[in-house]
Fold these 2 entries.
Entry 1:
Amino acid sequence: MKLGETISKSISLNNLEISVETGKIAKQANTAILRCGDLVILASAVGTTKPKEGLDFFPLLIDYREKYYSSGKIAGGYIKREGRPSDNEIITARTIDRPIRPLFPQGYKNETSVNILLLSNAEEYDADVFALNAASCALAISDIPFKGPVGCVRVGKIDGELILFPTKSQLEVSKLNIVVAGTSKAVTMVESIAYELSEDEMLEAIEFAHENVKKLVALQEELVAVAGKKKFEYTFERNENLYNAISEKYTSELAEALNTALKDERGANVKAVKTKAKEEFASSDLSTEGSFKGDFADGWERLQEKLMRAMILDNKRVDGRATDEIRDILVDVDFLPRTHGSCVFTRGETQSLVTSTLGTVDDGQRVETVTASTVENFMLHYNFPPYCVGEVGAPRGTGRRELGHGNLAKKALIPVMPKLDDFPYTIRIVSEIMESNGSSSMASICGGTMSLMDAGVPISNPVAGIAMGLIKEEDKYTILSDILGDEDHYGDLDFKVAGTQNGITALQMDIKIEGLTFDIMKDALAQAKVGRIHILKEMMKPLSAPRAEIAEDAPRVVKMKINPDKIGKLIGPGGKTIRELQETNKCEISIADDGVITLSAGNQEDIEQSVQAIEDLVCEPVVGKIYQSTVKAIKDFGIFVEFMPKNEGLVHISELPNDMIKDMKIGDSIAVKLNGFDFHGRAKLVHKELLEAAEEEVAVKE
């Protein structure tokens, strides 16, 4: 290929021209560039040709970064260089990793990295789905033994119509935001937020998405045909002799150990049998000394997987439940005395302590990224400490997995959250995982719902989440409800569904096999719905609706609107007036350009005083209205009174009864009527007219 030569292929989808190219940029790596309008994404894939010794996992690194120059920006703050990845970048990297990782050969241990850079941003589209296509393309044209390509699309739903690659403005009114990835043969990943859609509507969207995924896979295959490298050969050598020996002697003992209901007991039983087998075969001639550790670990894992899968296909589970049975559920609300809302949600051996905290609008999280500048007034933070699975260790900050699980739980709850205009609070949910044996993210959703209701947040409907699993061998398959950790590990499908009694609010699916049909998906969704409704009923036992009032020590927040022309008057010279209002009434005042004011205070009395003070300050004087005024100054020609806050006027001495002025002092109260304004804008105030009216009224009564 000549210097600077580019090989490019393109396709048109939903009036978007999408192209993938290679050859001009970053030639020492396997690099692909995806273009769509202003959007330009670079993806490079690099891998070693030999496995890394001593690893029991696939060392794949997916790194997604957004550059400030892609949006014509310079980073704010003291440091101008891009730093650690943002939460959005980490979540995007996870989204790319999930459908790509299963498409590497079994047992692949070669170090592999895929770096994706957003070089030019298109403001109207999210870059994540395009980044996944770029990453897949880079791997597909490389010599790395990747069994792709993978395509990815986003689908929305507006007025009953499915929309491919919806814009950000369309997503604001869409009932669905679903990301679907897959190969030409099958769907491999689904991630979505939905506004209580039915199972059939979700399936329809997935099928629609997959038809367009195939087109993006075909586009990448066109580029591979003219620019792809030959894949290097990789063989996964396994010690079949050792595996057969382990299987022959320890199948029955391991099966018995696996058939234990409690996680800790099952783990201890399996470990005891494993230790016995390892000691026996360590001195055998079935494996060399240098490779025995890896050979034995592989053989034992294969046997455990085989037994677990066979048991499930025979409709038996290690904890004795039926395939559609949900573990016992216990819900404790108002668990912590000082939090605004709290709940301990326990399902079997999975437990989450969830709290909800209410704050003012100003407590929202300000998010400054390359592609957006926003304020988040609803947050959900998920924590998974080592002790929740009985491990030794200290928390080391938020990991990628925690961000991903928290993001899914947040998506599930967003559709039922009140609008900020109706409930002007910042809300932070924190899920602390206390125990984990499968489905902790779904426990966070259930606990999050209950803690919100305990805090008095007026959610539209309670939300429950359930994790589903699948074991499939040829044409035989078993769908599992409320899966355990082991069932997730050895299964072919990790399928999480959250929703209300009316429909689905979030769906996440990671598929490890190619033979998953839409009929199986339909069966899984139907079984998940039954489980979800059961969980909702259990959740409602201690608290069936949001509390009528928010917690006593939660801040009180109200909104009011004033004429935008009065904002300056409310603020005052140098902010003097608004500072006095805040200090006097013990409140915080936030003013928007459209005149919407958000008031927050520690109690209801301070809120009411603050509202009254602002109304008094910014309301317009009404001609003909009678005001109870306060004497501010006394002169020979009359008295100056304040009839409204910051509104003063003169009551001429002719308007006062004989000698009345002699007995008056500053601070006295006097009723006045506003008769209008002179050509200088000064108020015309009268008092005698009120006295005459009162005398006439008395005379009439007599």
Entry 2:
Amino acid sequence: MHSKNKPCTFYVTTPIYYVNAKPHLGTFYTTLLADVTARWNKIKGCDTFFLTGTDEHGQKVAEAAAVAGKTPQAHVDELAEIFKQVWQRYNLNYTRFIRTTDNYHVKAVQKWLTELIAKGEIYKSTYEGWYCPSNEAFLTEKDLEFKEAGQPPISLLSGKPARWVSEECYFFRLSAYQDRLLEFYRTHPDFITPAERLNEVIAFVENGLKDLSISRKTITWGIPFPGDESHVTYVWADALANYLTAVGFEDETRTAEFSKWWPADVQIMAKDIVRFHAIYWPAFLMASGLELPKRLVVHGWIRVNGEKMSKSLGNVIDPVEIADQYGIDPIRYYLTRYIAITQDSSISTDDIEQRINTDLANDFGNLINRTITLALKNGLSSLPTTVSTYPADKELHAELQRTLIEFETEMNRYFFHQAYAALWKYVASINRYFHAQEPWKVIKQNPERFNEIITTTCQAITAVGVLLWPVMPQTIEKLFKAVGFKFVENTNYLEMLKAGSLETPFTLSALEPLFTKYDKKETEPMTTPTQTATDKTTPEKTAPAQAPTAPQGTQGYISIDQFAQVELVVGTILEAEGLPQAEKILVMKVNCGSYGIRTICAGVKKYYTPEELKGTKTVFVLNLQPRALFGIVSQGMMLTATNADGKPTPVRIDATVPEGTRLK
């Protein structure tokens, strides 16, 4: 068994992406989260390894190459380079970009499989069953939907017809690991974030596991199977091993490297591949006597027009085009801050522009520009390192300490959206401080106090910059240059902020606005390569067509499938607090059981004190798109019914019903 002994190393991975098309916003989002995670650990002083890459073998790759009139190798060489270019443009600072056609990976996979064969973990037999060509996956009954008699079933993995196959294969004894996997999940409840994904995996494994086909005889583009080159290694036995081979597995010259990095600290992926990473991958590692990764972070899909974004559906958004439109760092910020990993999310150009305007241009950018401009206008460019003892200044510093606790907690559980919502509450506090202290007036009567206000503000802005650097590195490094802060990667700035030792002499210089502000316009859906101008339809002012009349007392019907899409979940309010700037809003922390702790805003401040709501068990809608209210991202909605006095009353739930129970 290998073990990682060095305390401050951090290994984060993305899936390796299939090269049958260019990268899209969904694959970019996964890679962005890994980059943010790696950078977050760098500002904690950790030595980090960030792995990404491309999965270059398989039937679909060979078919796509043939259509393009190229050899498979030439085809994957071209697409791998495109992935690298897009990631580099977005400053995704990976340590290694692995390709499954890399010679060291091929050799290591063959050596690993040979060892598993020698242990009796792999055997030859015949597979007969349904197969999904789009996902290159063999299917169980749970993966199929039989719609029409005489027609092949639909693969639930891809939404496309499955194909019946019968062929000789090599099998991995997956079924032998069912009990070990269930015991591992039981003893490692934090293995998968969010927790509901682990529950789905446990349910799948409890239904029984079959041995896994790991070779194909009917295709040729892949790693030759060791000892039998009439077969090629099948996708998951090839692709999953990349997390090991990239850091030196099965290479005698790299044993120290492998010991340093394995096991991975976190592996980030979209929810459609969690089964492969939470079942097949741990079983492979158990069979090999290797430690399992510490955590899987599984995010939802980015949806376009209500559908999952995917190359097979032809509705992908090109990350290059959206960068051309809005810039690199604003898109990095928007996706990190406003896409919750716990659920699927939709995006629109209107929302992106609103967030850039309010969060970046107004809240943060305007604060920076006003502070630096006011200081330079009054001849103040060099600021001292001292920490002011003025009461308002001390309170702003104290609020930073409270923010650091919440920010670190959320980042360490990979709820990035909640971490940056907490940081933006602090940005709002800096703005309130700056306005309340009125330095533009103070300079006339008390220049010394003016210097303290500017210094305190610059210290707070720099602290925000350090925490924002993982998301917006290029922009924040411009800010650091303008205030004279010497930023060095892999420095433990988090501990310095906690200890109050980040204070530095500032040397201010003029700075152009960091963010572009967008004019309001009519909201348009975000277009994809398959849309045309006529797809963005505008309702015509014509007489409505006659529709069937709904029964009296209803507003029309919805289907049971539509109702099933609404996640109504039992939760208990742990705490609540009002917002000084909001007359109606209470911000609640809600224990939603397996759905985690959610921040949820409710417009009930006029009717309830925080103490009255604390401990209330009620029902919440959890799959609404997160919404920002006064700098707080609300991750759901509390259900209430208005009584005869006009007071909203929460739905009451029996005390015996556990948190996380879904209503149905």
